[in-house]
Amino acid sequence: MAEWLSIDETAELTRCSRATINRRRADPDFPLPFAVGGRVYFVREDVVAWMAKKQNAPRQQRIHRDQADQVAA
C-alpha cells in the first residue's frame, strides 16, 4: 500500500517550506494531492519521482522553474 505524506511531511522530504509546497500544488508537474477527512496528503512515491525528475532535468530548466516560483511568490 502506498505511503501517504501530510503537507508538513512532504515539505520535510523535499526540504521546502509548507508555503512552497502549497504554491507548487498549482504546478502541473507537481504530484496531485488528495484529501481524506479534510486533510491533504501526497503519495510518497509520487513525490520521490517528482524529486528525481526535477534533479535530472537540465540545469537551465531547473533554474527557470525556480525563478518562476520566486516571481510568482
TrEMBL record:
SUPFAM superfamilies, per the entry: Putative DNA-binding domain
Feature: compositional bias, Basic and acidic residues: 63-73
Record region (Disordered): 54-73
InterPro entries referenced in this protein's UniProt entry, alphabetically: DNA-bd_dom_put_sf, HTH_17
Domain of life: Bacteria
Stretches assigned to the Helix-turn-helix domain: 4-54
Name of the protein in question: Helix-turn-helix domain-containing protein
